[in-house]
Design goal:
Order of helices and strands: EEEEEEEHHEEEEHEEEEEEEEEEEEEE
Strand content: 35-45%
Number of domains: 4
Radius of gyration: 45 Å
Number of strands: 25
Distance between the termini: 79 Å
Structural class: alpha+beta
Length: about 550
């Protein structure tokens, strides 16, 4: 079988004579997760004598990349040549490893148990054999007594003999039956012991000949002095990701506030579990483009008008041929339509990197989806109001604005929304820079009822050749507060707008409009209303469109 073997030499050394070869497992100590990949730092700790040694680290991730591999040794030691092998173990495991010693001791213990069990069964079988021989002897005595001439004296002797033989035979048969039952029970127990020994032997074999699934790292290490040495092995590994999630809890009323529980959702499929690791989360994107794209100047040329005419003729001919082809295979037209381009929304970090060091150590198992870890709790003051669009909705919606005063960027992520202790649903928190303000919706307010009616609508003469044309519309909007608290309501409506001087738009409103064309959105009108609990407030809007004769309103 062909096996891939990959070697990287960080420092080219002549093949030395090693003092010893040591095999040791690597424990994952620190993991830094980026979007899409992770940097994993493992530690190997050995008690080494002074001199040059060969260190073997088996059972590393199968997808380990040599270009992302880094080794760090303490002062007084020097790392030499480094070899990375996939699906290959270059040396025999260390026979003195604690796991191998424990597995070997278990095999020896179970072998001794089996030997004791075999001796026990042999002893029981001897008892059964002795009982059978005793029964045969008693039966021979009975047959010898039955063959004698019967006299008064012999009859009494025979009776006594028969009674003795019967009594002894019964006792011996009972002893033989009990011994046989004991022997059968011992045989059943022996089967369990055999299975346990087989499992222990397989476990030992697995340690002596490890499964060739992962990577094996081999490197030389020169220790100036004897003692304990810890080597850090860092590698870049794919198939890991993290994203923030939020629980946003809004409290309305006089002391409005917004509490946010931040958490992270983590997944990794590196092929190995990460147990008891220090977790670092980073927004850096090391796998993406690191330099600006190239720019090339366009090549322009000129051609004669005759050549241009010929090109136009070729294009027309091609169009005619294409049209003819489409008519012949019209049934296949839908199959060759261009597929719409997929659009994926990604946060733009503008070069800023945010790093979180998770407090405490965690376990992250391979292949586990949506492992959620709590991060922290944030508290904000909030401005709360209701927004109403009577032309579109029959109820108002709860809105809140808060300032990110944490001093750090808040990353975009999915948010579970609560309002006054009630779960509203899911939303999305956008990227928030430090000290940035943001508005978010927190669900419907069923107690704020909206209506919009058009009492009358009149039009002037409509036609192309009329002398004057006019359209007038009146809207009556109401906001009824059926909740138990006062609400600040931002009511929004719209009127037509014109980009032509000859088409004039005029309007009147009661109460007066608070804002016109907010944020440059033409035709939008807004009112700031204070609607007390149990109260109703009305807004009237009149607008007129006027245009000269000879035109038609579109």
């Amino acid at each position: 079988m062909f096996r891939l073997f990959l070697t990287t030499s960080l420092i080219a050394l002549a093949a030395p004579g090693f003092a010893d070869t040591f095999t040791a497992g690597a424990r994952v100590d620190t993991v830094t997760i980026y979007p899409g990949l992770a940097t994993v730092t493992r530690q190997v700790t050995l008690d080494l004598p002074a001199g040059q040694h060969q260190i073997v680290v088996p059972d590393l991730s199968k997808g380990l990349a040599t270009e992302g591999l880094r080794l760090a040794a303490p002062v007084g030691t020097q790392v030499g040549a480094v070899n990375l092998a996939f699906d290959r173990l270059p040396v025999t495991p260390d026979q003195s490893a604690p796991a191998i010693i424990a597995a070997r001791d278990e095999v020896e213990r179970l072998e001794a148990v089996l030997r004791d069990r075999a001796a026990e069964i042999a002893q029981i079988r001897l008892r059964v054999q002795a009982a059978e021989e005793q029964i045969a002897f008693l039966q021979s005595l009975s047959q010898a007594g039955a063959g004698e001439a019967l006299t008064a004296a012999s009859i009494a002797d025979i009776r006594a003999l028969a009674q003795m033989v019967g009594t002894e035979t019964l006792a011996v048969r009972e002893a033989a039956f009990a011994a046989e039952q004991e022997a059968q029970a011992a045989e059943i127990a022996r089967k369990d012991d055999v299975e346990a020994l087989q499992d222990a032997q397989q476990a030992l074999a697995a340690l002596m000949q490890p499964e060739q699934e992962g990577s094996v790292l081999t490197f030389t290490l020169n220790a100036a002095e004897a003692g304990e040495v810890t080597i850090d092995i860092s590698s870049v590994e794919g198939f890991a990701n993290w994203s923030p999630v939020y629980d946003m809890r809004l409290t309305t009323g006089d002391d409005a506030a917004l509490d946010i529980d931040r958490a992270v959702v983590i997944s990794q499929q590196t092929g190995q579990d990460w147990n008891d690791v220090q977790l670092v989360l980073s927004t850096a994107r090391p796998g993406e483009q690191i330099a600006p794209s190239g720019v090339w100047a366009p090549v322009r040329r000129i051609i004669s008008e005759d050549e241009l005419d010929r090109e136009r003729g070729d294009v027309m001919m091609s169009a005619q041929v294409e049209s003819l082809s489409r008519s012949m295979v019209s049934g296949l037209a839908d199959a060759v339509m261009e597929a719409p381009m997929a659009v994926t929304a990604q946060a733009d970090f503008s070069g800023a990197t945010v790093t979180y060091v998770y407090p405490g150590r965690v376990d992250i198992r391979n292949g586990v989806e949506d492992l959620r870890l709590p991060l922290d709790k944030l508290n904000f003051e909030a401005d709360v109001w209701a927004e109403a669009a009577p032309s579109r909705d029959q109820i108002a919606y709860r809105m809140a604005e808060f300032t990110n005063d944490t001093g750090e960027v808040m990353l975009p992520g999915q948010a579970l929304i609560f309002a006054d202790g009630t779960m509203i649903g899911f939303s999305h928190l956008p990227l928030l820079a430090a000290r940035a303000d943001t508005e978010m919706g927190f669900g419907p307010l069923d107690g704020l009822r909206l209506t919009r009616a058009v009492p009358n609508k009149t039009e002037g003469d409509v036609g192309v050749f009329t002398s004057s044309n006019q359209l007038t519309e009146q809207a009556l909007m109401t906001v009824e507060n059926l909740t138990g608290q006062d609400w600040a309501v931002k009511l929004r409506d719209a009127i037509p707008y014109s980009e032509q001087d000859d088409l004039e738009v005029e309007f009147t409103a009661s109460p007066a409009v608070t804002r016109r064309d907010p944020e440059g959105t033409r035709g939008i009108l807004e009112w700031d209303l204070d609607v007390a609990a149990g109260a109703k407030q009305e807004v009237t809007l009149d607008y007129t469109l006027t245009w000269p004769s000879g035109y038609v309103l579109r």
